[in-house]
Amino acid sequence: MQALPQGAQALPVRETQDLESNRPHAQTVHARAATEFVAIPVRVAPEPGARLQAMPHSTPVPASARYTPTEEGDLWHGTVQQLVAAEAITALVRELALQSQLVARDAGHWLLRVERESLNQPVARERLRAALEAAGHATQISVEVGVVIDSPARRNAAAAAERQRMAEDIVMNDPYVQSLMRDYGARIVPGSIKPA
């Protein structure tokens, strides 16, 4: 037994009893330790997402940037670009125009198609119709909901992806960049190449 420091008092020690079985505390702890073990599932971390992966040379075009050219697509893309540049359409009306596909034209009536019902609002349709009429195009429009394969937004995204691919090709094929990578182990930081 250790000696107590000067002025300290020793407290009495009591043995703890288990109230249910009147066993000393040490025996209760031993009995509880002998119970069955419960298996806990281990969660395996998934592979890093696409956002954290290194960008390969000439990355694939995302689905939102792919489009299939249609007969009316060139006219619709030019018309929408003209309206946007003139600030004749803004906000939801601008999104309706950018996300829609011109399906058919019949005299003064144009049929548009959008994928999202939320863009097909009566006020947005009327404002787009008024902007088209003021620009000398359609006097009436109808908007249906369906699959869009050619819209101004998709054409713009495809053009941006092509500019990005060309900028990456220019950098990756530059002899000086290749020598830095080969001789010094230099690497291009993903996302650092931007088209001019």
* Main sheet record: 3 strands, mixed
Total strands: 3
What gross morphology would you assign?
A: elongated
Percent strand equals: 5-15%
Task: Using the 3D structure, state the CATH architecture of the domain at 65-152.
Answer: 2-Layer Sandwich
Keywords:
DNA-directed DNA polymerase activity, mainly alpha, elongated, GMP Synthetase, Chain A, domain 3, three-stranded mixed beta sheet, 196 residues, DNA polymerase III, subunits gamma and tau, 38% helix
Structural write-up:
The protein is mostly helical and 196 residues long. The protein has a domain at 65-152: DNA polymerase III, tau subunit, domain V (GMP Synthetase, Chain A, domain 3), CATH 3.30.300. The chain has six helices and three strands, in the order αααββαβαα. The protein has helices at 25-33, 73-85, 91-99, 122-134, 152-172, 175-184, and strands at residues 101-106, 109-114, 140-145. Helix 3 crosses helix 4 (122-134). It is elongated and about 110 Å long. The termini are far apart. 17% of the residues are buried. This is DNA polymerase III, subunits gamma and tau.
